[in-house]
Specification:
Strand content: 15-25%
Shape: globular
CATH topology: Rossmann fold
Number of helices: 10
Number of strands: 7
Distance between the termini: 63 Å
Number of domains: 1
CATH class: Alpha Beta
Structural class: alpha/beta
Strand order of the largest sheet: 3-2-1-4-5-6-7
Largest sheet: 7 strands, parallel
CATH superfamily: Glycogen Phosphorylase B
């Protein structure tokens, strides 16, 4: 029997983590693995590059509300999620005030993860997986809502350039069997913030498939696009 893999991602807009996920999906041997992909909100240019062998799970409305404007969340009737988002925002402001407003703080994401995850529906209806992957922070959802024998979380961020609240992030990272880092530099910066997690780190460089690169290149008409930019510059 094939091994079952669950992968969680926010959306598929054009970004580094999203491109990395496409590379991973295109590199998997689907003769050996059944892959369920859960995307919170089915949006983004890269949706069309998801391999046909992947089982794209249905969008669950509550999960699609995690990053939408709070006013929209209220209007659509997801009052618990909207309230949790507001609580997370307040806690983030208090944290930033105590830290004297650090630059490039991404602490808000973990506050949102902690506040919103408890009011989201369970994903255990999909059964038990051999492996569950949380591909982007915050990593609460795979940890709390998915049933799997082993769970791993991905790091895409260089922690040398961002501020986080280690006190609330460490308990989440610690519960994962392994933490995948995309480079030695990312590992080094992460371990400066979370030194106790050293034994969990596994390094896997981003995979960019030749097929994906070719398909993107074929969509780019150099002559047409460059002439357009020249015309804009002359105006």
């Amino acid at each position: 029997m094939k091994l079952r893999i669950f992968i969680s991602m926010h959306y598929m807009e054009l970004g580094g983590a999203e491109i990395s996920l496409i590379g991973l999906l295109q590199a998997i041997d689907y003769k050996k693995y059944d892959v369920d992909l859960f995307i919170h909100s089915h949006q983004g240019e890269l949706m069309r590059f998801i391999p046909e062998e992947v089982n794209l799970l249905e969008e669950i409305p509550a999960y699609s509300m995690i990053e939408k404007p709070v006013k929209e969340v209220f209007k659509k009737g997801f009052f618990l999620i909207a309230s949790a988002r507001i609580i997370a925002k307040i806690k983030t402001k208090i944290y930033l005030m105590k830290k004297n407003h650090p630059n490039n703080s991404i602490a808000v994401f973990q506050y949102v993860g902690n506040a919103v995850t408890p009011v989201l529906p369970s994903l255990k209806k999909y059964g038990n997986y051999d492996l569950a992957i949380s591909f982007l922070t915050p990593h609460n959802i795979v940890l709390d809502k998915v049933s799997a024998k082993k769970k791993i979380a991905w790091i895409h961020t260089d922690y040398s350039f961002v501020d986080v609240n280690p006190k609330i992030e460490l308990p989440i990272w610690s519960e994962y069997n392994n933490i995948v880092s995309i480079s030695p530099d990312v590992s080094k910066s992460f371990l400066k913030v979370f030194p106790s997690l050293k034994d969990k780190i596994v390094e896997i460089e981003n995979i960019l498939s030749p097929a994906f690169v070719r398909s993107r290149a074929e969509e780019f008409d150099a002559k047409e696009d460059l002439s357009r930019y020249v015309e804009v510059g002359e105006e």
